[in-house]
Amino acid sequence: MSSLPVTAEGKRKMHAELDLLSARLPIVAKAIEEAREKGDLRENAEYHAAREEMSLLNARITELKGKLARAVVVDESQIDTSRIAFGAKITLEALRDKSVEDWQLVGDGEDDALENKILTSSPMGSALLGKKVGETIVVKAPIGDLKYKVKSIAY
Question: How many CB atoms lie within 10 A of CB 32?
């Protein structure tokens, strides 16, 4: 089983989600039981919806448990902070329009575009790894090559 590098925050979030989903299981089990008591299950929409929710909950719980079993929190004190590596918070300048964007490189399961967290294995993440402040990266995208300059790196 391969290890899964994660940030400390990412591991906390996975544990929190697991706790929330686990707490939901008995509620959904009760909904299934109540729907079952209403009779014919073939045409019981409440029963089928609750069963589907239970199935989705169990699948996500299994996925989270698997990730947590493989999760290894990356020790940021062992990282060369002059270069971009896992867990880095990066400020980039888009050379096309001079706009500034902040990103964080994270592991599988932590990516969230709304929070500007991208996978190290993504095209942008791969292009950023190992770069220093002042260096330029080129990201291959469907709309063409996107060029960025690394403005800052923080951990």
Answer: 17
Question: If you write DSSP's letter for every residue of the chain in order, what string do you get?
Answer: ---EEE-HHHHHHHHHHHHHHHHHHHHHHHHHHHHHTTS-STT-HHHHHHHHHHHHHHHHHHHHHHHHHHEEE--GGGS-TTS--TT-EEEEEETTT--EEEEEEE-TTT-BGGGTEEETTSHHHHHHTT--TT-EEEEEETTEEEEEEEEEEE-
Query: Under CATH, what is the fold of the domain 4-73?
Result: Helix Hairpins (1.10.287)
Per residue in 73-107, pLDDT (tens digit) is: 988 788 888 999 999 999 999 999 999 999 999 98
Q: Is 3.40.50.150 the CATH number for 76-154?
A: no
Tens of pLDDT, residues 42-60? 888 999 999 999 999 999 9
Assess contact for 70 and 1: CB atoms under 8 A: yes
Q: Which sequence spans correspond to the domains of the chain?
A: 4-73, 76-154
**Which is nearest to 90 in space by CA: 118, 111, 66?**
118
